[in-house]
Amino acid sequence: MLLSKEIAQDVIAYAIDQGADFCELFVEKTSIQNIIFNSQKIKDITSGIDSGIGVRLLFGELALYAYSNSNKREDLLDMVKKLSAQFKSTQNRKQGILNFTPLSYQIIKMIPHKDVTLPEKIEALKKLDLLTRKQSPLLSQVSLSLMQKQQEIEIFNSDGLFAQETRPYIRLFAEAVAKDGTEQANGYIAPGVRGGFQFIENLNIQEVAETISKQALTVLKAKPCPAGIMPVVIENGFGGVIFHEACGHLLETTSVEKKSSILWDKKGEMIAHESVSAVDDGTNDNLWGSLSIDDEGMPTQKTQLIKNGKLENFICDKLGNIKTGHARTGSGRRQNYRYAPASRMRNTYIDNGQSNLDEMLRSIDNGLYCKAMGGGSVNPGTGEFNFSVNEGYLIKNGKIDHAIKGATLIGKGAEILTKISMVGNNLDYSAGMCGSVSGSIPTTVGQPALKVDDILVGGQV
Amino acid sequence: MKEQLENIIKRASIYGADACDLVINAGESLNLSAQGGKLEKYKLAKTSSLGIRVIKNNRIGLSYTESMDDDAVNFALKSSIENAQFADINLHETINVKNSADLVFKSIHPADTSSIEEKIEFALKLENEVYKRDSRVKAVPYNGLSSSSSQSFYMNSLGTYTEDQDHYLSAYSSALIQDGPLSSMHYAPIMGRKLSELDLNECIEESLLHSRNWLEAKPVATGKYDVLFSTEVLSEILHAFSSCFSAKDAIDKINPWEHNLGKKMAHEGLTLIDSPKFKDAFYKYNFDFEGVIKKDLTLIENGVLKNFYHNTATASFYKTQSTGHATRGTRSSLNVSGSNLVISPGSMSDSDVQEGTYLEVIDVMGIGPGSDSISGEFSFGASGYLCKNGKRIQPVKGVTIAGNFNNLINDIGPIGKTLHHNHSQTTFSPLIKFLNLSVAGS
Questions:
Q1: Average pLDDT, stretch A130-136?
Q2: Cα A117 to chain centroid, rounded
Q3: Which structural domain, as residue segments, surrounds residue A317?
Q4: Which of A346-355, B127-136, B249-258, B369-378 has the lowest mean pLDDT?
Q5: How confident is the model at residue A302 (pLDDT cuts 50, 70, 90)?
Q6: What is the distance, to the nearest Å, from the Cα of residue B53 to the centroid of all Cα atoms in its chain?
Q7: Is residue A258 part of a domain?
Q8: Which chain B residues touch A79 with a CB distance below 8 Å?
Q9: How many beta-carbon pairs under 8 angstroms link A with B?
Q10: Among A400, A429, B315, B414, which one is least packed by beta carbons within 10 Å?
Q11: Which of B79, B368, B440 shows the shortest C-beta gap to A228?
Q12: Is B366 on the interface with A (CB under 8 A)?
């Protein structure tokens, strides 16, 4: 136990005595190790432990939050006292004895933990470095890092909930830089899962080496992307970042409750082309964004967001439920104890459709094929988004033509959803980090290849 | 604190470290935000973390802990020494800064004495006033007031000790305006040392101004345009390509200007200086995270690349001196970074720079992911105004601006003589007309 049940009981009882309608303790201990390898050398090995307790009080719809590195009774009581000082209620409420029976829930499947020594991890990186450098003499740098962390959490609340979960994560960052004269370009991937080191042992590192080196070499010789409105095919996997940013965030109740999402009142309406179905799922085996329970102690679930173009559900946490009335979906998430939970995505993807990549390409005379997407951003109030293309090719007469660089896709989320006319059958996922009100959290994006009929492509004129 | 750090360094030596340095970052903050005329969030934060770097047999080991109790610190010390055993030998990264006296900087600004009630009232106004001033405001989705104090401490095994303390307040508001099918939103921040210094009116009016104007904005026709970036946007662009000035990135072969010191890389009218104690800057940086005293560093002079940012490790590699740009968080390794950036003024008046037709860019989207610091290519979304002779003639959004950083800083037209700054007062620049940029629109 990171925190004794007796202290949890005392702190929660004191908070309720101060007039809080609800009190929750989020207790965390996370150990992290990060190995950085570049220029064929181990540059840094960092390890550390994050540990602390976050206290959330609800006074109606007002959320109060504070945190501490201390798990001492007097420090936690003092924190609640300071937090509630401005809002202390005159009503005399008493918290009864809380049993804190451990919550039972289905544990998601994940790649098992395996004790591996530092030299074994370093050896794996060296092997990948060598494999990558063999791909081309034009590769001037290979940068790798391996991040492993294990998050242990305990959640207590004034409803009597007590839940625990241990969450192991592992992620590889791999980048190759190609150089030819004064021209330079890079290729990058960062696969990660909820699980242990066996993920790296099972990883096809030849494929990793080929992917990053090919991307760097392709971009090195790419021509500037022409600008204009054109049809675009976005490849599977990380292409799903557009749906995540341009639509997923608009379905979180943190946006819906403020009516700052253009989709806040569209439940039950057609918001996308009928070929589009989308899911936010916390239960997928091994996936980077999976959770057995969310950070409010609710078992996660598979949430159908859009079904054949119709908006079915929002992504909802406890406070979102109070403010909007939408059902909780096990989506209350936070980076760590320093953040109050908020409604956040887990593994979010557009589901498989009926088309295939060749059909999509054949349907386009002049357009853009985005093989690898980069990051981007969205204005949730207006749905305007902007995403970079890391590896792209022009489509000419139904076939992939030469590589381009410097392309950006720009548009509005709600409009793009209606312009997706073909959805492929090769759904794949990709790990990423999502930053929002409750910090940076592991999320998976995903989609099969899909065709957008027209979108503004930023590039050279 | 100093005694505590000395004690930890002694223990590092006992555990077998040849040298050691420590960073402690600590802070307290209060964050408030409103929704629907009521306080929505109230957050008290108190953080502290210790970062440890040890050197053993010329190998670096790093660790950190958020707990300062003896067990946690001892575990972190042992971890850092274990980590060092498996790192490769690094003869350049040493702990060699030995100062004759402690460097202690405490903010010269008096502490903010406003009460919590006053802060809550301010936070509520940040939301309420936006609704009051325009009936088309549908939401104020992002608003808040933050009051923060921070402390950082550094000590190394040669006895060098630094201490830095500061405090500030920041606030922001946004106006999401909807008029029929049209919607628009803009976000504006403000900063100050006291609540009474925060100009609530300025924050609200700026968010409303552009939200109103951009409601009926449309893309300009695709083509080549001369562009004036706001200092806010220019600051973001310079930071996206700051790798060009990093000696660390040069060593790691990801600085595209690695071999270009002394070469002309920009327009001859462009001079860029890193100025840690610039007179109008909000933050003053007195020393770096190795205890080296900071001073002005010319990065580009009349278009010629003059210097890279150095810490003692990169300086050793390049056989030069540290420029005082070492940076390190408690969880991260030694690196370099800039401080306040100042572009030297030219000779033209702002109205001269604004002659002719150009695109004024106020806001950008996706500048980070849309900028490739290795190839220099960039492409990002932009909002602003089409202007003629200094007058805004058409609000613009839904366009992208693309180009290459090397071309951007060479194809420069007139440079103004008046310095402007970004919201956080970390970047200072005259108006600069960037020529012939690719703009994709309608």
A1: 97
A2: 28
A3: 228-458
A4: B369-378
A5: very high
A6: 25
A7: yes
A8: 44
A9: 245
A10: A400
A11: B440
A12: yes
The verdict on residue A312 lying in a domain is yes
The minimal CB distance from B62 to the residues A45, A66, A224 is found for A45
Judge whether A166 lies within some domain: no
Domain count, chain A: 1
Q: Which of residues 421-440 of B touch A (CB under 8 A)?
A: 438-440
Within 8 A by CB and 6+ apart from B390, the residues are B350, B351, B354, B355
Tokens of A257: 């409750």
> Per the domain annotation, does A58 fall within a domain?
no
DSSP A145-173: EEEEEEEEEEEEETTS-EEEEEEEEEEEE
CA–CA min distance B139, chain A (Å): 6
Q: Does domain B2-214 have CATH number 3.30.2290.10?
A: yes
Q: What per-residue confidence (pLDDT) applies to A445?
A: 96
Domain ranges of chain B: 2-214, 217-442
Whether the pLDDT of residue B402 is over 70: the answer is: yes
Q: Using the predicted structure, report yes or no on whether residue A412 has a pLDDT greater than 90.
A: no
Q: What is the spatial distance between Cα A23 and Cα A160, in angstroms, rounded to a whole number? A: 10
- Please name the residue of chain A whose CA is at the shortest distance from the CA of residue B115: A86
Which of B141, B223, B370 minimises the CB distance to A388?
B370
Question: What mean pLDDT is predicted for residues B325-348?
Answer: 96
The torsion defined by the Cα of A100, A104, A108 and A111, in degrees rounded to 10, comes to 70
Contact A377 B47 (CB under 8 A): no
The residue of chain B nearest to residue A375, with distances taken between CA atoms, is B369
What residues in A contact B62, CB-CB < 8 Å?
44-47
- CA–CA separation, B99 and B89 (whole Å): 26
> In this model, does residue A414 exceed pLDDT 90?
no
- Residues 6+ away with beta carbon under 8 Å from B368: A375, A377, B240
